[in-house]
Structures are given as C-alpha cells and as structure tokens.
Specification:
The complex is a heterodimer of chains A (about 675) and B (about 375).
Chain A lengths: L18 H32 L1 E4 L5 E5 L11 E2 H8 L8 E2 L5 E2 L14 E6 L5 E4 L2 E3 L5 E4 H4 L2 E4 L1 E4 L2 H7 L2 H34 L5 H9 L7 H11 L17 H25 L3 H9 L4 H30 L2 H6 L6 H11 L3 H32 L13 H30 E3 L3 E4 L12 H32 L4 H12 L6 H12 L13 H11 L1 H13 L5 H7 L4 H12 L1 H17 L15 H10 L3 H33 L6
Antiparallel strand pairs in A: 1-4, 1-11, 2-3, 2-6, 5-10, 6-9, 7-8, 7-10, 12-13
Chain B lengths: L3 E12 L2 E12 L3 E5 L6 H9 L6 E6 L2 E2 L11 E4 L10 H6 L9 H14 L15 H14 L4 E5 L7 H18 L2 E6 L2 H7 L2 E6 L2 E6 L1 H6 L4 H6 L4 E7 L4 E3 L4 E3 L10 E6 L5 E3 L10 E12 L3 E7 L8 E6 H7 L6 E6 L5 E3 L8
Parallel strand pairs in B: 3-8, 3-9, 6-7, 7-8
Antiparallel strand pairs in B: 1-2, 1-4, 4-5, 9-10, 11-12, 11-14, 12-13, 14-20, 15-19, 16-17, 16-19, 17-18
Classes of the chains: A alpha+beta (about 675), B alpha+beta (about 375).
C-alpha cells in the first residue's frame, strides 16, 4: 500500500483541451446565452415588473419661473408646494402605472403658452423623470424652455418595488374573481377530459373493436387547430342563432359552458396520448395472474388496470389542468363576461395598457403551471421504472358486449371531435349564416380583412423557420448536454434551464418579451416587431418537449461513439453529422413537425409580439372574431387545419418512404 | 528485454471523496499483452480510461513511448480502443466503419479501400464489407470493432472487456484470434477483464487489482502458482482456505496439527489463512513413500461430483478439525485407487503448494 504517506505534495492533473472540447464548450456557452436572452432575462424583467409600483413623488419635481424679461431669480418651486397651494391633484391621483404622466402645466393654474415667461425644470434625483416632447430628462441639471415648449412637458412617475400591485389586485373583486373562475373551469375540464380520454384509450388498448386506426387519428385532430376554433364552432352550434341552441335549454354558450366544451375538445388529445402510453406499458402477466386467481373483471380493473395507469392519469390531469388554465384563445372567443386569468392578462395589457397588473396576473398564472410541471416531472420519472424488460404486452381478447360499448363510446367521441371541425368547415363555406345557406368560397377572401392572406403565408413562414431553427437549436443543446464529457456544471445548468419553458404559459412568456425586448436600453431591442422575435418566442415556448424528445433519442445512441471517434482522431462534428444525426433522424423529424404544428396554431405566445409587418393567421382569427367576421375567422381556422394536416401527411410520407430507404441499416 | 512503452507512476483518481486508484505504478513493455484483472469496482476500467484520456487522473503521470500524455485529450493520443458494446456505427457499412479513422487523412479512396480489405481479411471477414453491423453476429461485430481500432495502426490497443457480451464458445474462439492477431502485429495491448480464464489464456503478464491498488503483477503461471496475497489466490483459480496460526516461518498450525508450508515469513503466533488449490491435493497409494516434507493426512470422502475431466471430492479430515475441503482427483486416480463416496484415504499436501497469507482486511478504504 502506497497511500500511507506522501512526502511531496501532489500536483493535480489539469486537462489540456482538444479542439472538440473547445467546440462543445463553446456550443454550450452559445446555447446557454441563447436561453438567457430568450427565457431567463425576459422572465426576470417580468417579475421585476410585477413588483414595480409607480407614484408621482411631487417633491421630486422642481421648477423655476422667470419674469417677463426672461431673467430668473433664485426661487425654486417644487410640484409638492404648488400642489398644496393649488390643490391640482388629490392624493389618490398620485399612484400611477408605468405609462401614466401628468402635464407640468397642471401645477400652474395661470399658465398661458403665449406668455413671455420662461420655465426651468429639473428633478431632485434620478428616480423621477419628465418628458419634453419625446426626450426623457432626469437629474439636477435645469432644463430651460419657453412657455410654449413648457406645455409639452409631461411628468413621469417614479418607480419603487413592493407588493403594491398585488394589494391592488386583491382589493379589486373584478380581477381576483378570475382566479376562482379559472380554477373551477380547469378543475371540471380536467375531471371530464381525463375520464373521457381514459375511456377512449382503454377502448383502443383493451378491446377488440373495429376502426381503431380511424379513432386514433380522429382523437389527434384537435392538435391541428388553434384553441380558438372550437370557440367559433360552438358559436355556430349553440350561439344566439345556433343550430342546436335548443339543447342548452335557455342557458348561454358564452361563458363557462362554452369554455368547458371547448377545453375538453382541445385538451383531449394531450390527455389521450399520455394515458394511452401508460396503458400500453402494462404487463399482460398481471392480467394472467388475476385471471388464474379468478378475480372478477371489475376487481381486476380496480386493482390492476387503474393502478397501472395511475401515473399516466396523474400526469394527464396536471397537463390538462395547466393547458386549460393558461389557454387564452378559447375564453377570449366564447367566454363572454366570464373572466379568466389568461384573458385578464390580455385585457390589462392590450385594453388598459396596465403592464404592471398584467405582470401580476402572469405571476399568479405561473404558480399552477409550475406545480403541474413539477408533478409531471416527478411522475414521469416513476413511470419509466414501472416496466421491466421482461414485461409482456397485453393482447386483448374479444368480448362482444364490451367491444360494442367501446365502439359506441369512441364513435360518439369522434362525432364530437370531428363535428367541431366539421361545423367550422360548414361555417367557412356558408355564404351568410343563417340567412343565406348557399355554399361559396367568399369567406376565404381574406384580402378584404384584417391580416389577410399575408397573415396566412406569414404563419407558414413562422412555422417553417421555427421547425428548422428550433430543431437545430434544441437538438444541439441536447447533444451537448448528453454527449459532452467535460464542463459538467455548465451541462447541468443547461439541462435545468431547458426544463423551464414547460412551466411558463405562452402569454406570460409573450408579456415577458415585451418587458425585456421593448426596453430601449436593451441591445436586442431591434428584434422587437420582427419575425425573428416570433420565431425565438415560439421555439422557446415549445423548447422542453422538443428537448426531451432529443435527449431520449440521444440516450439510445451508444455513449462510446465519442471515445471511439476521438481514438480514431476524427473530429466530433464529423461523428455528429455522419452517425449521430442520421441515427436520430426520426426524432428530428418528430421535433420538426411538432414545432411546425404548434407554431401554426399558437395564439398565446405571439399575441403580444406580432406587428403590422408580421401578421399571423392565428392572430387574424382572433381579430376577425373580435370584429364580428366569424365566418372568415372559421375559414382561416380551416386554412390552418388543412396546412397542419398536409404537414402531418408530409411527415408521414417522409418517415415512411424516405427514411425507410435511408435507414436500411435498421432492419436485420 | 523489450523497451518500456507505457509507464504509469503513482496514479491516483478520486471521484469526490472516493478513491478509485491509490497510487498505481506500472510499466508495460513494447509488444506485450497485459491484462488488468479484478472484480468490478477494483479500478481496472478507471486505469484504462486514464490511459485512454477519457477520464483524467487526479494526480500522477502516464508516459507513452517516452512522452508525458497524462493530461492530453483522447484525440491527441495514439491508441485504438474496443469496447464491450462493440460501439459500431449502426448506420455505416462494415467497410465504412473500419475506414472511419482512415478518412480525412489525405488517403485516396482506393488506398482506404485496400486497407479496409486487408483488415477485413485479417479479422476473417472478407466479403462482409457491404453489410451493416446489425446483420452480423456478436462475435463478427467485435472483430469489426477490432479491425476499426487497428485500421490506423495505433501504437497501443486498448480492449475494455471485449468478450464479455459474447457466448462462451465464441468467446474462447475469439480469445485465441485476438491473441494471434496481437502476436502477429506486435501491437502493445492492454486488456481489461474480470474473467480470470481470459486473463490466464491471453496475457503475457497479468495485473491483478483490488480496491484501487495493484495486488500483483506477474505472468499467468506466476499469478496462479505463486500468488502474493490471499486476494490473488482467491480471485484467480479455486482455493481451499483454512484459518491457521503461524508456527514458524515455514509452517502453520490449526491447533490440532501443524503443517509444513511454503515460506511465509511471519513470526509464530500470527493469524494466517492457509491456502491450497483442489488440484494440488495429492491422493497417496497405500505404501507409497512420502514426498519430501509433505504433510500427510487421513481423510474420508464425503461427496464426489463428476465434472467431466475430473472428480471434485469433498473431504472430511480429523486433522482439519472437521472442516471439509475440496480436492480434484483425475479420473485415472479415482479408478486406480478405487475411490468411492465414504472411502477413507491418505492425501498429501505438498510443501510448496500449501501457502499461508495474511487474512483479507475488510475493504480498507
């Protein structure tokens, strides 16, 4: 044994970096910076906004007024003193928003812009500021001007940090009522959607009914359309002149009923995918054991089926809950007077220009989303260990009665899902519902409307750019994390940040982008209002799912390829392009189509970020619906549907035909 | 004597506070095949990965061909490596796999192809170049991996448990082939394995490791016949072990009787473990003259197990205080002596085959 005593202190061995190490390290830093700018900083800006309160501190503004000859004496007047003398502003007018301002002349009741007097103005500290025209001034240097210029001066409020916005929020019943509404609607939608999705997945997985393939496809249809679309369909079905209005028995669709029905529609496929996966993972041997113990079918269901799918059910519940909670498009279209948190953000920001209150609601909206995210990550980890390598997949045996019931249920579900889309298609084709039911394509003449065809092509551009750029960024990020061998701190941090976007609702991210990128002092300010910011926000919003797909694919690639390539003195990017990328091609395609479809349908991420140069189809639907052009809105919704359907078919063709040819090595 | 090629001095590796290598020093000669042998977690793979530049040691030095390579990145070192998983690129043909390291080196297409064909022939897979890895058997895939590693004519070949994923029969066959290939090309080779049979049959020298230290370095026969510690004796080959006390530098006593044994050098009274391999227990025919100094004991055959080429017998002996031990008797000996279950006989424990060591210390970290 030699470790008893070492007479000499040991010098540690420090790695000399190879070019590959530098490439990977550089890559990690670049992606890390990207995520900082695209995610961390904007979210920080938003939090700062939520805790920023604004008030006019009148003692901060100082004035001097000259005599008629234009000479000043040493008298300095503060706005506070002037206000006390003139009582221009009552105390409650002094609390403000960031966008508020007061005209300086308000403190001079006898002010006339024709008078020969000259004015000087300054602020006691940098905390307060004033606008002269478009120029912001602040600090102890006098700014002198004529009375005509003085009338343009606007005092801006000073910022301080505190819980003031939250206090305001919770003392405004109109606002905090939304919390209850959102929670209630989300809870009910979750219960209903998860039950329906479980029944649907169970029928597909455990029965021998016919048309399983058709049902499976139909269940996925809602993913291809924006969440606004079910709202429009529901208006046609149950609105004031709806085809099936009698079914509501006097209730109105504009409100909780509409939001609920629409939420079930758009969240159904998400719940279905998760639960179906959980059910396929079940082990047939457990059922054989139950049968050999003569367990009744009901008891088997309760003791084997449900517990086996429990992680899937929990995960699906949280996903649906946070989807409904954070969705904006649907309640905007069909919610009527029934306020929801996500719509509140929109109204505070767009309607009232109250950015602070928008940030407060966003903050509140993150909490349930964050919880859902945490539970989901926890459960996903457990799910994987549930299935051992020896598990035997379950093969259903025909049970005539059950199979018929399953078929009836699935058929009904598909009538609902496809019916919604069908109604939209009908609405898009009818000339003037309900007065002229003849069919025409006139509703597709978007050029006459807000957004127009430009918005549709712009959406396709956004979707393509997001798919290409997003797939590259996400896959590289996952590659660096999974295959890098040094710099483990950086890799761990990157992985952690990559999980964050899933917990941040789209609207919140969009709002955070306003706060961060619209700041004139931000070097990335030029991004604001461009296509680039739409791409960045979309990719960032859908980052996590794409990242997890990449990481899963990369984990299946032998970890020893990199050492082998290094021993053969081949650069890592050569291995990456000749081996890693071809091996992960199916996953890359999957990520591409995921980003494409979501970029086409998303409203919440981009609603604060589009500009007149970058109109989008999904936003056009929103605006047409707002303007009362419901039929063209439905037509535009259908355009998105056709596009996504075509994209999906293209994806199917590529993965079936093209990949099969290039992936001959997969077969034995 | 060949020149030293890889010189490792005082190498240490810490994972947090866990010490995976504790001051390992070792010299590997040119054209030698050295085996790192030990149980899992003994540090043999860590040592290999340090030599390969895949995991950096915490301190110490590694020299290859006279140059200090301790902190060099893997891509700047000169070696080829073969992993247990083969690590063949599944989407490239066998030819492209083997040629992977030859590309980007200024070689022409035809030169690469010629070299690939040469290597395919070398590993006995001519005409398989157009196939994909998944179309080959495990043994064939491992040969491709070997050819790929050899393609760039490395100065050092590292084999990390290359045969562990294969069936017994393929393994034996491939063992032989690798050894032959190594002898023909003369490439200095390090083989990591936990399989003692593999180490004994392939290695020029074996490095037995345990708990991050080298227990013994020696030729296969040295390691097997003259183990330097109880761990080595126990890990390589089968042993009978009996707790004893030293009764002088070349004898031990179990309290009932004393036995003469190989010189162990411990003072009388020290607790030791006496070790003899089953095949070293010699059955004695009645009336045969005793060999020089060998201990003779009376035993009873409690059980006999037929293992094909020999019988393994469990023996009871009063001299061992009732503790039974195993002996391997040849089929001839059993027939000649008419041994059956329950029979009594005399066995000899040859002096130089009976060894005594210090007991193992429980995982001294």
């Amino acid at each position: 044994m030699t470790d008893a005593a070492h007479p000499l202190p040991k010098t540690g061995v420090k790695a000399r970096m190879s070019r590959d190490d530098l490439v990977i390290r550089g890559g990690i830093i670049v992606i890390f910076m990207y995520l900082l700018v695209a995610l961390v900083f904007p979210m920080g800006a938003m939090l700062a906004k939520a805790f920023s309160t604004y008030a006019f501190q009148l003692e901060q503004y100082e004035f001097q007024v000259s005599d008629e000859a234009g000479t000043f004496d040493d008298t300095v007047l503060t706005a506070a003193v002037l206000n006390a003398a003139n009582e221009t502003l009552p105390q409650e007018k002094l609390t403000a928003k960031s966008t508020s301002s007061i005209s300086a002349t308000a403190f001079f009741p006898e002010f006339s812009f024709r008078s020969p007097e000259r004015y000087r103005i300054r602020t006691a500290s940098e905390d307060a500021a004033f606008l002269k025209g478009a120029q912001l001034h602040s600090g102890p240097n006098w700014v002198e001007m004529s009375s005509n210029e003085f009338r343009q001066v606007l005092l801006k409020p000073s910022r301080s940090y505190g819980l003031g916005n939250f206090a305001t929020y919770f003392s405004t019943p109109v606002l905090f009522k939304s919390i209850r509404n959102s929670l209630l609607i989300s809870a009910i939608s979750t219960a209903v959607t998860v039950s329906l999705a479980f029944a649907f997945a169970y029928a597909l997985n455990r029965s021998c009914m016919a048309l399983k393939g058709v049902f499976r496809l139909a269940a996925m249809a809602p993913i291809l359309v924006p969440s606004l679309l079910p709202g429009i369909a529901l208006v046609y079905l149950f609105g004031n002149q709806g085809m099936l209005k009698w079914m509501l028995m006097g209730e109105t669709i504009y409100g909780p009923i509409g939001i609920l029905l629409g939420s079930i529609f758009f969240s159904f496929p998400h719940a279905f995918i998760i639960i179906a996966t959980a059910l396929t993972l079940s082990d047939a041997r457990l059922y054989e054991a139950a049968a050999s113990l003569r367990t009744s079918p009901f008891k088997t269901f309760m003791t084997v089926t449900l517990p086996g799918a429990r992680f899937g059910l929990i995960s699906a519940s949280f996903v649906v809950f946070s989807l409904v909670m954070t969705d904006f498009g649907l309640p905007k279209v069909i919610g009527g007077q029934y306020s929801m948190l996500a719509v509140d953000i929109y109204q505070q920001v767009i309607g009232q220009q109250n950015f602070e209150m928008g940030a407060v609601v966003s903050f509140l909206l993150i909490i349930p989303a964050l919880m859902a995210f945490a539970v989901d990550r926890l459960v996903q980890g457990k799910q994987q260990s549930l299935l051992s390598a020896r598990s035997v997949p379950y093969e259903p045996a025909p049970r005539p009665l059950t199979d018929k019931l399953c078929f009836a249920f699935c058929a009904a579900m598909c009538v609902f899902l496809l019916g919604i889309i069908g109604v939209c298609q009908y609405a898009a084709l009818v000339k003037f519902y309900p007065y002229d039911l003849s069919l025409s394509l006139s509703n597709y003449r978007f050029d006459l409307l807000d957004g127009g065809w430009a918005s549709y092509f712009n959406s396709i551009k956004l979707a393509l750019l997001s798919a290409v750029f997003g797939t590259a960024v996400v896959f590289l990020a996952a590659y660096f994390v999974e295959k890098g061998n040094a710099f483990s701190a950086g890799r761990g941090l990157l992985q952690g940040i990559a999980m964050l976007p899933m917990a941040i609702p789209g609207m919140v991210l969009g709002l955070a982008y306003i706060f961060f990128f619209n700041d004139a002092a931000n070097p990335f300010n030029w991004l604001y209002g461009t296509m680039a910011i739409l791409v960045v926000s979309t990719v960032t919003h859908f980052f996590t799912v794409a990242y997890l797909t990449s990481a899963t694919a990369l984990k299946q690639v032998d970890a020893e390829f990199e050492p082998v390539a290094a021993s053969l003195k081949q650069p890592v990017f050569r291995l990456f392009s000749t081996v890693t990328v071809p091996m992960c091609a199916p996953a890359l395609l999957e990520i591409g189509i995921y980003l494409f479809v979501n970029a086409m349908t998303t409203v919440s991420v981009v609603v604060f970020l589009y500009s007149h140069n970058t109109p989008l189809a999904s936003i056009a639907i929103l605006n047409m619906d707002d303007a009362g052009d419901i039929a063209p809105a439905a037509a535009m919704g259908m355009m998105i549907f056709y596009t996504n359907l075509a994209a999906r078919l293209f994806h199917l063709w590529v993965s079936r035909v093209v990949l099969k040819r290039s992936q001959a090595w997969r077969t034995r | 004597m060949a020149n030293p090629y890889v010189e490792i001095s005082d190498l240490e590796k810490f994972y947090g506070s866990f010490c995976a290598l504790k001051g390992v020093s070792l010299t590997i000669l040119e054209s030698e095949l050295v085996c790192f042998l030990g149980p899992s977690g003994c540090g043999k793979t860590t040592l290999l990965r340090a030599i390969a530049g895949l995991d950096l040691p915490s301190s110490g030095q590694i020299r290859q061909g006279g140059d200090d390579i301790t902190s060099l990145p893997a891509s700047s070192r000169d070696y080829g490596i073969v992993f247990q998983s083969y690590a063949l690129f599944p989407n490239l043909t066998i030819s492209r796999n083997i040629g992977f390291g030859l590309e980007n080196r200024g070689l022409g297409k035809s030169e690469i192809q010629a070299r690939v064909n040469e290597l395919l022939a070398l590993v006995g897979l001519p005409d398989q170049g157009g196939k994909y890895p998944s179309q080959l058997s495990g043994g064939q895939q491992q040969r491709v991996a070997l050819a790929r590693a050899m393609a760039v004519s490395p100065g050092l070949l590292l084999l990390d448990e290359p045969l562990s994923a294969l069936d017994a029969k393929v393994r034996t066959h491939l063992r032989h082939e690798i050894k032959e290939l190594q002898r023909d090309t003369g490439v200095t080779t390090i083989l990591v394995t936990h399989d003692q049979e593999e180490a004994l049959s392939m290695a020029d020298r074996i490095v037995v490791m345990n708990h991050g230290v080298i227990e013994q370095i020696g030729t296969p026969t040295e390691v097997y016949r003259e183990p330097e510690s109880l761990f080595v004796a126990d890990f390589v080959g089968d042993t009978n072990q009996l707790p004893v006390a030293s009764a002088g530098p070349d004898s031990v006593s179990n309290g009932i009787s004393a036995f003469r044994c190989r010189n162990h050098g411990h003072a009388a009274g020290k607790d030791l473990v006496a070790v003899i391999r089953p095949e070293d227990v010699v059955p004695v025919e009645a009336g045969a003259a005793p060999s020089q100094g060998a201990s003779r004991i009376e035993v009873m055959i409690r059980e006999m197990e037929f293992l094909g080429s020999f019988w393994r017998c469990a023996l009871d002996s009063a001299a061992f205080g009732g503790a039974h031990f195993y002996a391997d008797f040849s089929i001839n000996a059993v027939r000649r002596l008419g041994l059956t279950q329950g029979a009594n006989l005399t066995v000899e424990l040859p002096v130089d085959r009976l060894m005594a060591f210090e007991p193992l210390q429980e995982a001294a970290q």
